[in-house]
Amino acid sequence: MSKRAAFTLATSYVIGSVAFIGGSILFHPHFSVDDTLFKLGVSLFIVGSVLFLLPALYEWHANFLGLLSYHATPNYNPVSDYDLPSDYILRNHGVNITRSTISVLNGILFTIGSIAYWPTFERVGVVTGNWLFRMGSSFTLLSCIWAFSRTFSQSHHTRGMRQLLRIFFFQFILGAIGFLDT
């Protein structure tokens, strides 16, 4: 992935996070009594959800292109078994595709759940939105646990990096559990 793409994806996550925080504040009962502020909160949730979904779709697409590049090489005639992609490489692509698919499903559930909160849908929308957020949080939790176990099964990380990654994944897991509890 190029530095520009990585920066764009990271920026999308940061802006999406800020939108979620703003939406969460506007969902507080003090603010949500005003219909305009409530709609602004829902709009921020929708924007945040889409900004989380776009990088997930990009990653999912890139993982599929990476896997297809092994099978779509023109005039590829392996001379021996050593010329074939190793099981490790194919397994790693499979893991990446699975994780990015989980992230895409999570993004879709959060986006639809955010839309369901719009006041037009009334009580049915709130209940639907709550359940879609819970399902999306379950996928987030699954994805974080998956990434956590994969990261620490690889031995090339330094001790300090492992500690930093533990904190990072632990925060995501707590956030997902927090959504499941609502």
TrEMBL record:
The keyword Cell membrane does not apply. It comes from Planoprotostelium fungivorum. Keywords: Membrane, Transmembrane, Transmembrane helix. InterPro entries: YrhK_domain (IPR025424). The chain crosses the membrane at residues 7-28, 40-58, 101-119, 131-152, 164-180. It holds the Pfam family YrhK. This is YrhK domain-containing protein. Residues 12-57 form the YrhK domain.
